[in-house]
């Protein structure tokens, strides 16, 4: 049987790897088109609906990780802290974006995530951030994961792996047991993919002449 997908110019590979659901979706589309008297002989662009949700997720990740990365550069350029940034998001709206302030506050706990959670709580007037997500330029450390849990944030997306920060001289390791513990407590923790991870990982190399270790 010839699938409608074949008529729409989709490659054989796509056809073979997207067997059933695309066909059903196409048929639905064709039925709708028929009812609307749409010209089905018109050329149709290659199907993108299967990629769309993932691409949308990656775009969203990139948007907020890029903001966190921008915060990381601000921390070192202004001399107030180390190259780490974090953004708290509610729905699709940014609540706050912050960076590391350990030097400005003379406070070793003033990590970007801690600062962002404190600011978000103040701004929203509550200590329960269960309707928020946090985007961090780098994988959060155990201290930050602890506060993320206390604030009831349910989703953490980070750009660079902690190992990259560690290689740059920071106390960056996060034991797997910590990650597993927080995942089991219901927090989604994952690294952003593609370009978002790349721009986050290059922060340390690009800012190495500007940040200080002490
Ligand atoms: Zn931290």
From TrEMBL:
- List UniProt keywords, sorted A-Z: Hydrolase, Metal-binding, Zinc
Q: Does the keyword Hydrolase apply?
A: yes
Keyword Cytoplasm in annotation: no
One example of the protein's molecular function in GO is:
hydrolase activity
Q: Where is the CMP/dCMP-type deaminase domain?
A: 59-171
Pfam families listed in its UniProt record: dCMP_cyt_deam_1
Q: Which Gene3D superfamilies match?
A: Cytidine Deaminase, domain 2
Which PANTHER family does the record cross-reference, listed alphabetically? CYTIDINE_DEOXYCYTIDYLATE DEAMINASE FAMILY PROTEIN, CYTOSINE DEAMINASE FAMILY MEMBER
Report the sequence similarity comment from the record. Belongs to the cytidine and deoxycytidylate deaminase family.
The protein depicted here goes by the name CMP/dCMP-type deaminase domain-containing protein
